[in-house]
């Protein structure tokens, strides 16, 4: 079994070059993570009735994960 046949597939083109779209996605992910972890102050978050105090980076990270899951669901559904 070659590495290309693995469950994750090949993240490069067949000729071995990384695609520009994948470089852009990697940069967006890195910038998003830097933004999230730079915001560490405590904030009050209200979801319907309860109000909790939590670090802002946890709220941002949770929203990024939820957004990625929703985006992945709709992309997969389109295929």
A few lines on this structure:
This protein is of the alpha+beta class.
Report how far the terminal alpha carbons are from each other.
27 Å
Write down how many β-strands occur, each being a DSSP E stretch of 2 or more residues: 2
The chain-level mean pLDDT equals 82
Backbone CA Rg: 18 Å
Number of continuous helical runs:
2
Shape category: flat
Quote the beta fraction. Answer: 5-15%
For the report, how would you describe the main beta sheet?
2 strands, antiparallel
Q: What is the SS-derived class?
A: alpha+beta
Summarize the amount of helix as a percent range.
40-55%
How many structurally independent domains? Answer: 2
Q: What is the helix/strand order?
A: HEEH
What layout of secondary structure does this protein have?
Blueprint: H1 20-38, E1 42-46, E2 51-55, H2 56-78
Helix pairs in contact: 1-2
Architecture overview:
Strand 1 and strand 2 form a beta hairpin. The two termini are 27 Å apart. The protein is 53% helix and 13% strand. It has 79 residues and is of the alpha+beta class. Strands 1-2 form a two-stranded antiparallel ribbon. Helix 1 packs antiparallel against helix 2 (56-78). The protein folds into two domains: 1-38, no CATH class; 41-79. It is flat and about 50 Å long.
Features:
alpha+beta, 79 residues, two-stranded antiparallel ribbon, 53% helix, flat
């Amino acid at each position: 079994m070659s590495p290309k046949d693995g469950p994750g597939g090949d993240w490069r083109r067949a000729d071995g070059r990384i695609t520009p779209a994948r470089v852009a996605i990697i940069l967006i992910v890195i910038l998003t993570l830097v933004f999230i972890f730079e915001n560490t102050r405590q904030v009050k978050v209200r979801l319907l009735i309860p109000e909790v105090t939590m670090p802002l980076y946890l709220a941002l990270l949770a929203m990024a994960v939820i957004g990625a899951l929703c985006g992945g669901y709709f992309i997969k559904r389109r295929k």
